[in-house]
């Protein structure tokens, strides 16, 4: 290519490149503004958690704390037992790992096997998505009571351990696993259980990541069941602890915001770390 | 696929047991209870309960609060679902177009509302929306606009509550759309570009149709969620003012837990369940027809 | 390969079992005849109550487990407890919910035990309160803390506007409120909480009437109630009252936007906590009735769960809680007024000028009629009617007629 041609090409590009750059820039700006306004309420909340009580109820409201203090956080963990609530919440989330396993197993079963009643059962799975939660409250409590699981953390975690949505996603993903791989394992003499744990699960890492994050979020934020099932305050989770602070006359917004921040920040961190896998997981489950 | 043995049942059982116990069984119980007049004393002692057949359903049909709740729910769905689908899609398209580190960093910001528990959300938005002391009205006052009754005006309250729910609902759907976009081969778009198509044209004619399933999936799941709209109106306005933001779910909850009319509430739940099921099936049928031709 | 796989499976199962056991074992002991007593208290923390019962545990060796229940969640708790049949041993019951609890059969009848526990007898408590909280003629709970409603006012703001003393009648209050509302845009004279169902009842009492008739049936068709409605709607019509439902009463009072309102002692504590600099600039007075200055006797009672298997221990704890020392101690720890007369009249309490007003008001206070469901139904219907009239301009006659129709047949019997 001659120099003249190259220069001509460069001169031909600028207007187009400039236009593209302008569009990219404006898109970037729109996204930035959108992101900041979306996150603003929570940023304001975290900022508010560092304000002393007097400043928090001041009007006009300040955006950033004028006299930042850690007093609210200290109070949460010393006076108000939030350390225990945090521990309970972590345990509930860990119990959720079993839910993950069950949903993966069910998804695999629906994806890769033919059996009698499969259609009906899968239909039921989807039907559970449409059931309003208020309906389930009392019967679920009665079931838990019958199993002597009320007032235990297992009882708190159980109702939301498995979701129809999760089973559906696992099924979607696992149906993309090539049958040949599974056949090869069987020919080698591997049992079904071993095939599942040593081949299917490792191949399902993306969808496991998605479900793990979603299960973490659900378990972490669970409010309804911990409230109803735990008749012992020692079993309360963070959500319930936060709502205990919502007296009719809330005089310490900063304390409430500190409690709310304790709830939000860990979940956010988990998401930030795993977000790539989350997107990948959805992508590979054939949502197109 | 393997032929039937016991194995698939083994895999499917634990999850199915839980779903049946905590999903299907309760709706069955509700169906039975809906034919009785069970209230709090009935709950304590079953011999206090009487069978009244379809009495509850007849009462529902004549209850103005029920119809208002139904109307509110319909309004929320009609406004909220398109808003969420369009917003999530738009943001996902923009994020994907922008690409690179900026997009990845900003993604987390958009997901923040989705990961926050409802209790924390009610706290923050309650303060933002407060008429006398909230941040929004304060900012408005700086530019000379008078106090807005975000949560007290019957129509404005619907909008305010819906706004919070839309804010919260876009996060996960943006992720889903991003994932779906990842699945569109670059070649399609490059081919269109070579043919001279502008970006918008490419998006409209090529990308959107290929996102068909994702759009459908998001629409169906969001519709199901909004038909059960509960969290936001409950914590922000308790269904008020004067029932303006009472959705079907809140109506059921109040009948059941504040008024202790469990039979009546169960009947309402069955009606809601039926509505959700019918609308979902209709959506599925429409899609099948669309795709088949 | 096979061995390592089985080992992994075993490890996972072991961890799961351990987690499950750990989770299960944190459940509280549920009522062996010898274990700790479980007490449900309303509010944000169990720490205060634990402090209160510490001397009891020291003295008797009886352990007490306290569970704090958020105020908004008492309905769910009650329902699930009733459904499963298992509840605490003792529980705090707000008076407006007492009838609901009793109807659900959750409360142990105490009549047979009163002889052995003189501390729980009706004459320990202010006139009429113990009787008023009987349900169907049976004693099912014991007064625990008392609460009332008094007029809070910003003396400094009233003075600035030429008013030297708090209003002595509701009509005077209406005038004063109108004057104060003229201070400017966004300024009001009085605050009517849109969730406050006892307020119109207090107004009716102050006009010399009642909302139940001689037979115990709810009756809104009386001239005194009509006067109360006139007052309620008049305050709104004058523009003296804020119309938004999310008005913050504490901040409204502190900032001076709504310098008068009728509320309870909890507000005094909130104001003192949030704005100590306002000390001396505000005060409380009895409700501004012209002839009758009757206010609400609110508060909570304590009841024993109907099928507890620790009846004696529960009664002992109940008696401890009704002792003058415990009642005074609770006031010190938590700021809630005692229900026991001797404690109320104690000099240490009376030295506090605010408490002097509270006990004066308590002496002229009535309990809300014990209808089947005040909070969820009757009171809520009353509020809906009034709010419809003042906030959406509904037709007064029609709305009130509807209210009467809805509440027909509701009775305390």
Structure write-up:
- The complex is a heterotrimer of chains A (288), B (293) and C (413).
- Chain A is mainly alpha-helical.
- Chain A has helices at residues 3-48, 53-56, 71-78, 82-112, 118-127, 133-146, 153-157, 164-174, 179-187, 192-203, 205-221, 224-229, 238-244, 253-284.
- Chain A has 2 domains: 3-48; 71-284, MetI-like fold (Orthogonal Bundle).
- Chain A is built from 14 helices and no strands.
- In chain A, helix 1 packs antiparallel against helix 14 (253-284), helix 3 (71-78) crosses helix 14 (253-284) and helix 9 runs antiparallel to helix 10 (192-203).
- Chain A is flat, with a radius of gyration of 26 Å.
- The relative contact order of chain A is 0.13.
- Chain B has 293 residues and is mainly alpha-helical.
- Helices cover 76% and strands 0% of the residues of chain B.
- In chain B, helix 3 packs across helix 14 (262-292), helix 4 packs parallel to helix 8 and helix 4 crosses helix 13.
- Chain C is built from 18 helices and 10 strands.
- Chain C has helices at residues 2-25, 47-60, 74-84, 95-103, 129-132, 155-160, 170-181, 198-206, 223-237, 249-255, 265-274, 311-321, 324-334, 341-344, 347-350, 353-362, 374-392, 396-407; strands at residues 37-42, 64-69, 90-94, 142-148, 150-153, 260-263, 283-285, 295-304, 337-338, 365-366.
- In chain C, strands 1, 2, 3, 4, 8, 9 and 10 form a 7-stranded mixed β-sheet that branches. In chain C, strands 6-5-7 form a 3-stranded antiparallel β-sheet, with helices on one face.
- Helix content of chain C is 46%, strand content 12%.
- The longest helix of chain C is centred in the N-terminal third of the chain and has 24 residues, at 2-25.
- The relative contact order of chain C is 0.16.
- Chain C folds into 2 domains: 37-148 and 297-366, Periplasmic binding protein-like II (D-Maltodextrin-Binding Protein, domain 2, 3-Layer(aba) Sandwich); 150-296 and 369-407, Periplasmic binding protein-like II (D-Maltodextrin-Binding Protein, domain 2, 3-Layer(aba) Sandwich), CATH 3.40.190.
- Classes of the chains: A mainly alpha (288), B mainly alpha (293), C alpha/beta (413).
- Chains in contact: A-B, A-C, B-C.
């Amino acid at each position: 290519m001659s120099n003249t041609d190259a220069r001509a090409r460069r001169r031909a590009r600028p207007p187009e490149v400039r236009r593209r750059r302008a569009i990219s820039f404006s898109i970037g700006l729109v996204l930035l503004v959108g992101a900041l306004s979306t996150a603003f309420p929570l940023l304001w909340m975290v900022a508010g958690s560092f304000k002393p009580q007097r400043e928090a109820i001041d009007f006009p409201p300040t955006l950033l704390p004028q006299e930042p203090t850690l007093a609210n956080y200290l109070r949460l963990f010393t006076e108000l037992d939030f350390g225990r609530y945090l521990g309970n919440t972590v345990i509930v989330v860990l119990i959720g790992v079993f839910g993950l396993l069950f949903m993966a197993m069910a998804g695999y079963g629906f994806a890769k096997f033919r059996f009698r009643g499969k259609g009906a059962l899968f239909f039921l799975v989807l039907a559970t998505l449409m059931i309003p939660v208020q309906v389930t409250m009392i019967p679920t409590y009665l079931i838990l009571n019958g199993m002597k699981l009320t007032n235990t953390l297992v009882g708190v975690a159980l109702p939301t351990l498995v979701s129809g949505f999760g089973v559906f996603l696992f099924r979607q993903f696992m149906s993309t696993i090539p049958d040949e791989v599974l056949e090869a394992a069987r020919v080698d003499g591997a049992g079904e259980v071993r095939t599942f744990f040593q081949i299917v699960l490792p191949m399902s890492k993306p969808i496991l990541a998605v479900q793990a994050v979603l299960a973490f979020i659900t378990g972490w934020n669970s409010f309804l069941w911990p409230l109803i099932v735990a008749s012992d305050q020692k079993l309360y989770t963070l959500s319930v602890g936060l709502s205990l602070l919502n007296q009719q006359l809330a005089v310490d917004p900063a304390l409430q915001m500190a409690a709310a921040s304790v709830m939000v920040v860990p979940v956010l961190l988990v998401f930030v770390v795993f977000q790539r896998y989350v997107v990948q997981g959805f992508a590979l489950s054939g949502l197109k | 696929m393997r032929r039937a043995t016991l194995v698939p049942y083994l895999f499917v059982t634990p999850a199915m047991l839980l779903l049946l116990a905590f999903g299907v069984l309760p709706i069955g119980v509700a169906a039975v209870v809906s034919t009785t007049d069970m209230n709090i004393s009935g709950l304590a002692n079953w011999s206090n309960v009487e069978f009244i057949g379809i009495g509850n359903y007849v009462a529902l049909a004549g209850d103005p609060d029920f119809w208002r709740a139904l109307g509110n729910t319909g309004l929320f769905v009609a406004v909220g679902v398109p808003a969420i689908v369009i917003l999530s899609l738009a943001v996902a398209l923009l994020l994907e177009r922008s690409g690179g580190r900026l997009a990845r960093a900003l993604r987390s910001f958009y997901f923040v509302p989705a990961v926050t528990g409802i209790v924390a959300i009610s706290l923050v938005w309650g303060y933002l929306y407060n008429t006398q002391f909230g941040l929004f009205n304060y900012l408005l006052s700086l530019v000379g606009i008078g106090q807005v009754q975000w949560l007290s005006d019957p129509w404005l309250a619907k909008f305010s509550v819906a706004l919070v729910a839309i804010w919260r609902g876009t996060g996960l759907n943006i992720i889903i759309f991003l994932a779906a976009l990842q699945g569109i081969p670059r070649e399609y778009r490059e081919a269109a570009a070579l043919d001279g198509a502008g970006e918008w044209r490419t998006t409209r004619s090529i990308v959107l149709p290929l996102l068909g399933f994702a759009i459908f999936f998001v629409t169906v799941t969001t519709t199901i969620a909004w038909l059960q709209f509960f969290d936001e109106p409950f914590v922000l306005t308790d269904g008020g003012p004067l029932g303006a933001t009472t959705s079907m779910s809140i109506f059921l909850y109040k009948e059941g837990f504040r008024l202790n009319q469990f039979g009546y509430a169960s009947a309402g739940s069955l009606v809601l369940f039926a509505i959700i099921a019918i609308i979902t099936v209709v959506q599925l049928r429409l899609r099948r027809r669309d795709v088949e031709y | 390969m096979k061995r390592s796989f089985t080992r992994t499976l075993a490890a996972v199962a072991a961890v799961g079992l351990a987690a499950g056991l750990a989770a299960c074992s944190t459940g509280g002991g549920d009522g062996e005849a010898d274990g700790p007593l479980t007490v449900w208290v309303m509010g944000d923390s169990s720490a205060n109550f634990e402090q209160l019962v510490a001397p009891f545990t020291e003295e008797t060796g009886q352990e007490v487990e306290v569970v704090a229940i958020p105020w908004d969640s008492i309905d769910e708790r009650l329902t699930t407890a009733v459904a499963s049949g298992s509840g605490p041993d003792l529980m705090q019951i707000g008076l407006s919910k007492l009838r609901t609890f009793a109807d659900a059969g959750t409360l142990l009848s105490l009549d047979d035990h009163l002889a052995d526990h003189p501390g729980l007898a009706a004459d320990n408590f202010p006139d009429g309160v113990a009787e008023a909280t009987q349900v169907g003629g049976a004693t099912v709970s014991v007064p625990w803390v008392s609460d009332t409603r008094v007029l809070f006012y910003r003396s400094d703001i009233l003075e600035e506007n030429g008013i030297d003393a708090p209003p002595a009648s509701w009509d005077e209050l209406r005038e004063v409120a109108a004057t104060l509302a003229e201070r400017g845009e966004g300024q009001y004279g009085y605050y009517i909480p849109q969730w406050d169902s006892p307020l119109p009842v207090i107004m009716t009492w102050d006009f010399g009437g009642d909302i139940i008739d001689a037979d115990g049936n709810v009756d809104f068709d009386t001239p005194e109630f009509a006067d109360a409605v006139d007052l309620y709607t008049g305050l709104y019509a004058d523009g003296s009252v804020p119309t938004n439902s999310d008005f913050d009463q504490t901040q409204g009072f502190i900032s001076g936007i709504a310098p008068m309102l009728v509320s309870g002692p909890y507000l005094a504590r909130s104001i003192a906590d949030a704005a100590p600099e306002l000390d001396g600039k505000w005060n409380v007075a009895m409700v501004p009735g012209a002839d009758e200055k009757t206010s609400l006797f609110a508060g909570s009672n304590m009841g024993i769960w109907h099928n507890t298997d620790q009846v004696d221990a529960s009664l002992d704890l109940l008696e401890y809680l009704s002792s003058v020392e415990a009642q005074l101690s609770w006031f010190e720890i938590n700021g809630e007024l005692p229900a026991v007369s001797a404690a109320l009249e104690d000099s240490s309490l009376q030295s506090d000028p605010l408490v002097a007003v509270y006990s004066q008001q308590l002496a002229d206070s009535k309990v809300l009629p014990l209808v089947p469901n005040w909070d969820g139904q009757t009171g809520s219907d009353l509020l809906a009617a009034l709010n419809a009239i003042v906030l959406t301009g509904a037709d007064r006659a029609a709305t009130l007629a509807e209210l009467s129709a809805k509440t027909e047949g509701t009775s305390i019997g």
